From TrEMBL:
<dbReference type="InterPro" id="IPR006016">
    <property type="entry name" value="UspA"/>
</dbReference>
<dbReference type="InterPro" id="IPR014729">
    <property type="entry name" value="Rossmann-like_a/b/a_fold"/>
</dbReference>
<dbReference type="InterPro" id="IPR006015">
    <property type="entry name" value="Universal_stress_UspA"/>
</dbReference>
<feature type="domain" description="UspA">
    <location>
        <begin position="3"/>
        <end position="150"/>
    </location>
</feature>
<dbReference type="Pfam" id="PF00582">
    <property type="entry name" value="Usp"/>
</dbReference>
<protein>
    <submittedName>
        <fullName>Universal stress protein</fullName>
    </submittedName>
</protein>
<comment type="similarity">
    <text>Belongs to the universal stress protein A family.</text>
</comment>
Length: 150
C-alpha cells in the first residue's frame, strides 16, 4: 500500500528542504502538497483614513489581499507539485485558509495522511515563546507521525 505524505509548502527554505527530503526518503509515496494561507496575513498594514471611509473599505482591502495571498500560494504549491510529478511521484496540491498549525492537522486527519513531513521555521527567543511554532503545534496535535526537517 502506498504511503500518503502531507508536505506543507510555505515558500521558506525549510519547507523546500522538507519537500526534497520527502522526495528522497519516500520514493514510492503519494504526496499532497499543502499551502495554508493565514487570514492574519491579510490584515491591512496601513489604516484607511478619510472622512468618508467606512469599515467596509477596510474589510474589502483585507479580502483583496487575502485573494492575492491565495493566488500566490496556489501558484507556488502547483509548481512544487509539478516538480514532484516530474520526479516520478503521484502528487497533488491544495490551498486552504486558516491558522497554519491547526489547518495542517485538520487537513491531515480529513485526508487520512499517513505521515507529515515539514520544515522547521526557525523562530527563536521571544517570538517563539509568544507566537509558538507551526511545527511544534503540528507535532503536539497530529495523529500521524511528523518529521520536522531543519
Amino acid at each position: 500500500m502506498q504511503e500518503h505524505l502531507l508536505v506543507p509548502i510555505d515558500g521558506s527554505e525549510q519547507a523546500r528542504e522538507a519537500f526534497e527530503y520527502a522526495l528522497d526518503r519516500f520514493p514510492d509515496a503519494e504526496l499532497t502538497l499543502l499551502s495554508v494561507v493565514d487570514p492574519a496575513d491579510a490584515v491591512v498594514s496601513e489604516p484607511i483614513t478619510g472622512a468618508y471611509e467606512s469599515p467596509a473599505g477596510t474589510a474589502g482591502a483585507g479580502a483583496e489581499l487575502l485573494n492575492e495571498l491565495e493566488t500566490t500560494a496556489t501558484e507556488r504549491v502547483e509548481e512544487t507539485a509539478s516538480e514532484a510529478r516530474a520526479a516520478g511521484h503521484d502528487a497533488d496540491s491544495e490551498v486552504v485558509v486558516g491558522q497554519p498549525g491547526r489547518a495542517i492537522v485538520v487537513f491531515a486527519d480529513e485526508r487520512d495522511c499517513d505521515h507529515i513531513v515539514m520544515g522547521s521555521h526557525g523562530r527563536s527567543g521571544v517570538s517563539r515563546v509568544l507566537l509558538g511554532s507551526v511545527a511544534e503545534s503540528v507535532m503536539r496535535r497530529a495523529h500521524a507521525p511528523v518529521t520536522v526537517v531543519r
